[in-house]
Amino acid sequence: MELREIKDSEIGKIKDLRDYAFRLPASGGEDDFNYWAENARRLGLFYGEHLLAQVLTYPLSVSILGERFAMGGLAYVASYPEYRNGGLVRQLMVESLVKMREAGQLVSYLSPFSIPFYRKFGYELFTEKVELEIESHDLPDMGTVPGRVMRLSSEDGTGIAVIREMYNRFALTRKSGMMMRDDAWWLRMARRGYTKEIAMYCDENGVTMGYMLFTMDHEVLKVHEMIALNYEAEKGLWRFIGTHSMMVDRVIAKNVGSLRDVALAFPSPNFKKREILDFMMRIVDVEPFLIKYRFAERFDAALYLKVEDETAPWNEGIFEVRGNFVKRVESTEEEVFAITIQGLGQMLMGFVRPADLVYYDKATASEATIAAWEKVIPHVRSDFYDAF
């Protein structure tokens, strides 16, 4: 058995395993699949010329607290059923982490088929989504707004040019963990039909403050994402949705905020709400990640992290942190915040606070150490509006 990179000429074998394991066509079509397969790092386990298991890693980037981080997006992790439970995927996962570290990809994301399975490799949930299903007669009255909504076209590219700048502002300043979309990613979204209909909200001065990507599917209006820089824009976009109440039976909306956002935004949120935990992340290389990470405040006194990582041993050990000065130390007499790689990712992304991690036995620390880390971890919530 040989673990090696999958050649360009062997992409057909990736498709065969994809089709057998997932039983679903590539949602963006074969051209889109081919593009990403050609540009991914492809690892496979072979017996002779036969591909037994595979892992693809997409070269992507995300925003964490306003900084761009290179991210390895894992996709099409699969093996043929007769080779499951034989450790093949484990070998590929470990080698993928090694390759990501060598490539400077400090974080990795994936969409899990099994959350417990990927936790074994250091991945953990870092975002919670809500999907809304609203019958047309239950669409809320959001009142009046001073601005107006304009429709844009994605056919000639002008619509994308306008909204991509706003998306980047939102991703860099309002959330942690969002995809930094390049031309290839916007094209991917277009292939999936997400950018077919664009509604843009402008305030009374003509300044663009929000947009929405949506499609009309028979009697259903589907909102793929809504980006708003203030509540006025959010109300204006929901008001625009409400004008369709005589045309559709219901609205299905995702990537419009958290359940808490929904509770705050709607005067009467008495419609169906489904919470989704569908993406996981892990820190690939702790030391350079900590160096790049933007802590909430400068601090002169050293804080100490003791990290446990069974899959990536280069991350294990004690790290001294003083602002953006980070170094590994053999030992310390100071109190440490002892944490797993899974918990560390959740904490630094803003998904879980330090005190909560200690409460749920994901970390151990004294009350004073918890308080110190609570001060330096920013209060910015993580989110992710994309998928792969």
Q: Write down the CATH class of the largest domain.
A: Alpha Beta
Please state roughly what percent of the residues sit in beta strands, choosing from under 5%, 5-15%, 15-25%, 25-35%, 35-45% or over 45%. Answer: 25-35%
CATH superfamily of the largest domain: Gcn5-related N-acetyltransferase (GNAT)
- The CATH architecture term of the largest domain is 3-Layer(aba) Sandwich
Protein structure class: alpha+beta
Give the overall shape: globular
**CATH third-tier fold name of the largest domain:** Aminopeptidase
- Total strands: 20
**How many domains?**
3
Portion in helices: 25-40%
Unreliable stretches covering 5 or more consecutive residues: none
- Overall pLDDT, averaged? 94
User: What's the main sheet like?
Assistant: 8 strands, mixed
The number of helices is 12
InterPro entries: Acetyltransf_17 (IPR041380), Acetyltransferase_Eis (IPR051554), Acyl_CoA_acyltransferase (IPR016181), Eis_dom (IPR025559), GNAT_dom (IPR000182), SCP2_sterol-bd_dom_sf (IPR036527)
GO molecular function: aminoglycoside N-acetyltransferase activity
Domain N-acetyltransferase: 1-140
Organism: Listeria weihenstephanensis
